[in-house]
Amino acid sequence: MIVPEYWAEARRQYKTSAKQVTVRRYGWSMSSQADARLIAEARADEALQRIVAGEQLERRERKVAYNGAAGIPIREEVLARHGEVVITRNAYGAHCLNSPSALFADIDFTPERSAKPALFTFVALSVASVTIGISLRSWGTTFGLLFASLVAAAPIANLFARLAVLAGGGSERIARERIASFIAENPTWNLRLYRTPAGYRVLATHRTFEATAEEVQRFFTKVSVDPVYARMCTNQNCFRARLTAKPWRIGISAHMRPRPGVWPVRSESVAVRNQWIAGYEAKAAAFAACRYIESMGSGVVHESLKSVVDLHDRESQALSGAQLA
After folding, report:
1. Which of 74, 149, 175, 299 is deepest in the core (most CB within 10 A)?
2. 102 with 25, same domain?
3. Structural domain span for residue 15
4. Got the DSSP string for 224-259?
5. How far separated are the first and last CA of the chain, in Å rounded?
């Protein structure tokens, strides 16, 4: 996990009578702005040479704060450092805890749906459509039924998915049973369970982990962790937990300025950014990002994780009883 303190962007240009190539690259450093600038310039020089030589590379790196272009660390404003744990401000303004070893996982009650069920449904309907069309010896009927299958496949798949959730007792119960099932199979584990606005958050406390470890990925799969979160953990080699409210959940409709809310910002934009932040912080103070429910498993809290638990619970207001947002 790398969360640099300093960032810079360098621009390099190659120009002939036949073409012009402009390249921009970021640099970062934990020690100084000057070092960040040197790294940015070196990366821009290298990228320009490779592009001029004929290699297909992006001319500039996308302005995304987290899980961005390959090789780019987390590019967010650092709010605080607590040993190896770093608290940053994400692209929409919320505080986030970043840890290389404390296993956090978010589990949404309404998970991201795969396209596979709709595809399988379409295939099944298509087979039925062709069978009916052949039996009636009508190409018109066949093509009509195939078109109807294409239109109806996704709604039918979604309907069956909703019925399956209802049959299992609802999304919350299914998520809770997955976690309980994992603990039953892995009794040495200990998970602190939290309620979030969209589902559950778990924090493993019995020992530390590396985000890229196979056992972490197996755990993510077993409890149906948000796939976007799982990819972020792997790509950035860290775990992450939001500590303050999402702005749109507390009545703030305006995006953090300037857009996109990626760090760093130009000096002329600092004032407008700080104005938005002041309004956000004032409102967010009345809300919790999650609520502690219980500890499931062995009850073990590793010595090195006690401070992370305290920090997370304090900053997220998990024990406050405040409204979730």
Report:
1. 74
2. no
3. 6-61
4. T--HHHHHHHHHHTSEEEE-S--GGGGT--SPPSSS
5. 27
